[in-house]
Amino acid sequence: MPTHSNQDSVISFGPFRLFPKSRLLERDGEPLHIGGRALDILILLAGRPGEVVDKRELVKRIWADVNVDEGSLRFHVAALRKVLGDTGKSPRYVLNVPGRGYCFAAPSTEAAPPVAPASAEITPPRSLPAQLAKMIGREEVIEKISNGLTLHRFMTVVGPGGIGKTAVAVAVGHRRSADFGGRVFFVDFGPLRDAGHVTTTIASVLGLAVSAEDPTPAILTFLKAGPALLIFDSCEHVLDTLAPIVERIVREAPQLHALATSRESFRSEGERIFRLFPLDCPPEREHLDVAEVLAYPAAQLFVERIAQSSGPFQLSAEEAPLVANICRRLDGIALAIELAAGRVNAYGIAGTASLLDSRFSLQWRGRRTAVPRHQTLAAALDWSYDLLPPAESATLRRLSVFAGPFAPEAAAAVASGDGLSTSETLEAIDSLVAKSLISPSGSRTLSYRLLDTTRTYALGKLSELGEVRQFARRHAGHFRDFFARAEADNSTPLPEWLSTYGGELDNVRAALDWAFAPDGDARLGIALTATAVTLWVRLSLFAECRERCRTALAALGEDRGNDHVRMQLLSALGWSLMYGEGRAREARAILETTLELAERLDDKDFRLRALWGLCIDQFNNGQFGKARALADRFANAAAHSPDNTDLMLGDRLTAVALHYLGDQNEARQRIDRVNASLHVLVAKPKIFPLDLRISTQYFRARILWLQGFADQARALAADNIEQGRANGHALTFCSVLGQAACPIAFWSGDFDAAERHGTELLEHTERHAIRLWGLWARAFNAAVMARRGDIATGLPLLREELNRAGDARFLPRFLPLLGELAACFLEAGQIDRGLEMIEDVLARCNERQELWYLPELIRIKGELMLGAARHSGDAEARFREAIDIAVRQGARFWQLRCATSLARLLIGAGQRADALAVLKNVTGSFAGGSDISDMRMARELTAQLRA
To answer: Do 123 and 506 touch, CB atoms closer than 8 A?
Structure first.
């Protein structure tokens, strides 16, 4: 008895059971063979028992856009009655109501679908596959769908499996590619087993690094950017989850068009259904000649595929009826026809026809397209599989453990052995490709994939022979070793690294899902998790890294014999919490345990990783004195490392600590030392998730700006943006914009650039679902709005966004925005609220030794005091205090800004000479930046004083 879909219901009547979604009719538990149209009629009528369904409605529903007369309806109703045994004068099931229509008159019951557990899998990003060199019998269909996409924004190609839906959709994608500016994305849900990963699958194909629980906002942001065509392939098993998502993105992304392929429709708002029928077959008639047979697309496809696999081929008059019979027996299903054609070279047409007869017993005769996809293709695949030599059948079975595309090297590693050499395996793959059982993938490098139905079939065979565990373990072991090599590959630039390793995410997930299943191998899963950390980090998939590490650690338990692996997993967990969540409370304890293990095992690399992570954790939690101490510990440990990049990382970490502590001169020395060594950097540092070259430059730009080297800082920030874009690492580019480009543009008074960078950052964070930088970008954009004069909108929006940020406000990057909020209160005349705000922020800075922004905060406090009559006398002291601190810090920019505020106060008090002296003292030492707003203001005041 066949296994029914876990989404199907059952309609029982008499000895019959109807499975509408599986499109299966049984009598006494045995499947019946019924034509596709007849089955469509039965499903429609049985779904509305006792109701007379109008003939015109039946024709419209069953034949969709095809024009047919009532004679066709009567023919298929008669065929249905014959299957049901309704041949007497008193029909028991389907009743004809003259002048009106047909009614399902039998008593029936409907049972709910059974519920089956789901397993996790998602597919990695991939481009639109190459289209077939020649499409037979589908040109009109492709043209109709292509034109239909102009009129309708959401179309679904509906039909049974193997009929050619994917090939048609791919051809439409290529045909319409220019109309969408090349933004055509192919989302293959075939490997997906857990519908919960539908949105992450879409995001991955769009090239979005997913680190949030729900990537739908990121998907919408990406799709709103311009015209795009999304092709969703093999959707039938994820419809319940996918349908509302497609409805939403089509509704909210007005330039998006969607084309789906599925065995059933989405039943969604706005959906236009296009039913793809089998290729027309020659009729069952005697004395068909060659021309008559070749007038039908099914026969054309059969002959074309023979020519492709065997060379030039001429159909003879004797063979023409045999070809017609083969095509009919295979129901015009394209895949089944191609499989049969692939055997002609070995067995000839007559031999192929006889083998078809022997394999498909009489019960398969007359099968139509509406027979469930697995049943129809299982029959064709069963027959083809039995014809394979042992080496090829074994190779096909073993390759079924791969999820998505696989490289020849991976195939050889997993499928070879147990009687098959590597060369025999590769030869078998070549033969299986020629027989259409394996398809070349659309990627740039050579790779293959099994069609979904072929993989399911082959995996079933693997299970029947009790081989699943053996080859699933080999598959997981291969990717454990593969990513051990990937982790050591530190010299390959990130885009090339991701091109080589990133596409295997699907296989890693499949291997881990198997390894941690009850019948899996948890120890192998633990080892694979440890080696795959580099992949998740470089894809910015910190949320997935976190959950996979937790699973592996839970499986590891208290086994003290695996402390090295425990250390690796704890380190990855701590880092994923730190970079993915910011102020994660549990990160510090996890990293401290990592450090303890590294000390006990005397592992220098993980000692440095743990110290780095603990230092960043102290930054995130505002303990800058402790962060400096940890930076010193890191530098001391790095001094004994044979890897020079560790010394560079030590200087960078110390430079960042000094910068936040307010010592810009010493920070500059350290960061310049790193910069001077970058030319010798060959490999990517093992312990640093961002690009060291790029991250060095955005902190150099910040320090240069504060020191008063405005022109150098802006030029460096501009170059850094281009480098960050080219690098392609999502989290690194957030820092490029958020640590340097945005604040430097803001401080320079170039609010056009600030708005541009802030908008780009926000869109980038939404595209890649990077939450923490997204919170900062929204608050920053509100501050820009306020600074441009729209206080009425900007102030409440800035306050709202900072409140929304929650604990993230304590990250160092938020400090200037808190100062700007106090300044906005001043502009809005809310002096008391501004003073209250500035006191809170100053208390934070002094408590945490977060001193780099202290001069500006004290200056803002002085400006607020000037606005409050009771405090105005203290303003001058605050300005002078701020100048003194700025001088000690080597922060000439803060010195300039504070001096300008003091000069204005002195001018108002009639102390013009003192005001001029204050301005001359700072502007004379300011290097460049003549066009920034603070310098322009200082020059205007100076000119005013000299006039």
So the answer is: yes
What six digits make up the tokens of 427?
């030869």
Give one DSSP letter per residue of 819-835, joined into a string. Answer: HHHHHHHHHTT-HHHHH
Coil vs helix vs strand at 88: coil
Sheet containing strand 52-54, strands side by side: 52-54, 101-104, 94-97
Q: What is the pLDDT of residue 332?
A: 81
Residue where the block lists tokens 């890897």: 643
Write out the H or E segment, with its range, that includes residue 645.
helix 644-661
Our measurement of the distance from residue 811's CA atom to the centroid of its chain's CA atoms, rounded to an integer in Å, reads 27
Q: Which three-class secondary structure string do you get for 285-327?
A: CCCCCHHHHCCCHHHHHHHHHHHHHHCCCCCCCCCHHHHHHHH
β-pairing, 272-275 vs 154-158, is parallel
What are the start-end ranges of the H helices in 516-541? 522-538
Report which of 739, 747, 731, 732 is spatially closest to residue 783, judged by C-alpha positions: 747
**Measured CA distances, 46 to 14, 20, 23, 116, 364 (Å):** 13, 9, 13, 25, 24
User: How does residue 4 score in pLDDT terms, banded at 50, 70 and 90?
Assistant: very low
Asked whether the beta carbons of 232 and 258 are under 8 A apart, the reply is yes
| Residue 442 in this model has a pLDDT that exceeds 70 | no
Beta strands 184-188 and 228-233: pairing type?
Answer: parallel
3-state helix, strand, coil in the chain (%, to 5): 65, 5, 30
Place of tokens 């090599």: 485
CA distance 674 to 407: 39
Contacts of residue 382, Cβ cutoff 8 Å, sequence gap at least 6: 359, 457
DSSP E strands, 127-225? 154-158, 184-188
DSSP string, 902-916: HHHHHHHTT-HHHHH
- How far is 45 from 13, CA to CA, in rounded Å? 13
The helix (H) or strand (E) run that includes residue 448 is strand 448-449
In 10 A of CB 929, how many CB atoms?
22
Average pLDDT, the chain: 84
Given the DSSP bridges, would you call strands 448-449 and 439-440 parallel, antiparallel or unpaired? antiparallel
Q: Are 154 and 271 in contact (CB under 8 A)?
A: yes
CA separation for the pair 625, 344 (Å, rounded) = 78
Q: Which residues are CB-neighbours of 435 under 8 A, at least 6 positions away? A: 309, 339, 342, 343, 384, 388
Task: Write the pLDDT tens digit of every residue in 586-639.
Answer: 888 999 999 999 999 998 889 998 998 899 888 888 888 899 999 999 999 888
754-773: buried (b, 16+ CB within 10 Å) or exposed (e) per residue? bbebbebbbbbbbbbbbbbb
Counting every residue, how long is the chain?
Answer: 947
Other C-beta atoms closer than 10 Å to the C-beta of 84 total 23
Q: How far apart are CA 669 and CA 591, in angstroms?
A: 29
Residue 926 · residue 892 · CB < 8 Å: yes
Which tokens sit at 38? 């007849």
β-strand pairing of 448-449 with 256-262: unpaired
Instruction: Provide CB contacts within 8 A for 604, sequence distance 6+.
Output: 598, 637, 640, 641
What is the DSSP secondary structure assignment for residue 475, as one 8-state letter? H
Round to whole Å and give the CA distance between 253 and 241. Answer: 19
C-alpha 123/C-alpha 672 separation (Å) is 43
Q: What is the pLDDT of residue 30?
A: 77
pLDDT-derived band at 98, boundaries 50, 70, 90: confident
CB contact set of 317 (below 8 Å; sequence gap of 6+): 289, 290
Classify the phi-psi angles of 602: left when phi > 0, otherwise alpha if psi is within -120 to 50, otherwise beta: left
What is the residue whose two structure tokens read 């409050």?
868
Question: Angle formed by the axes of helices 239-252 and 216-223, to 10°?
Answer: 40
- 101 vs 51: CA distance, rounded Å: 10
Taking 70 as the threshold, does the pLDDT of residue 3 lie above it?
no
